[in-house]
Amino acid sequence: QVQLEESGGGVVQPGRSLRLSCAASGFTFSNYAIYWVRQAPGKGLEWVAVISYDGTNKYYGDSVKGRFTISRDNSKNTLNLQVNSLRAEDTAVYHCAKETQQWGLYYAMDVWGQGTTVTVSS
Amino acid sequence: QSALTQPASVSGSPGQSITISCTGTSSDVGGYHYVSWYQQHPGKAPKLMIYDVTNRPSGVSNRFSGSKSANTASLTISGLQAEDEAYYYCSSYRSSSTLVVFGGGTQLTVL
User: Fold this and answer.
1) CA dist., res. A63 & res. A69, Å (int)
2) Interface test with A, best of B22, B58, B100, B101 (most A CBs within 10 A)
């Protein structure tokens, strides 16, 4: 069964850091780009970042550029998101999601994890 | 303000058809074939319903269909069922530093 499972969320003070992880199973992880998408409480979906299947290309949303870093370890079927300089507006559920097709970027996500919650509060 | 514009809510009775619109620009919806639609029930992860404007993933009911005209994409649900009640989000590739943009979401109520 194709699955993604996030971890690493928590309550953190403004300005601090967290490292979110996403464990993949049931598919050839190294063949697919993976996205991070977040959803603030009571709000809609916001694209955060995406990494290509081999990790060579990384793209970020404007609101997180320079503060968040996406990475992957294909030997461990794991995706990471280093989130630094956290702000109150970063409070959200963070989902990892798999690209629909192998090798490229097609900007659609066919498998989603349940998400990990990040709360930024003093 | 969301990058793509969706109606906040739509409603319909069981068995009816409804359409949800998603309006962008020539830099996103109008310029590319990368429009997707997601269904989200409260407290659940989003589910892909349509990708590449018109394609349905395996397992998604053929009651769901997508289309596009100029800068507006649409999701049509025919034969409405109670379980279709959910939030629906559109997304698109955008030719800018923000690669992926979402709509603000539409709450579908089945009366």
Assistant:
1) 13
2) B100
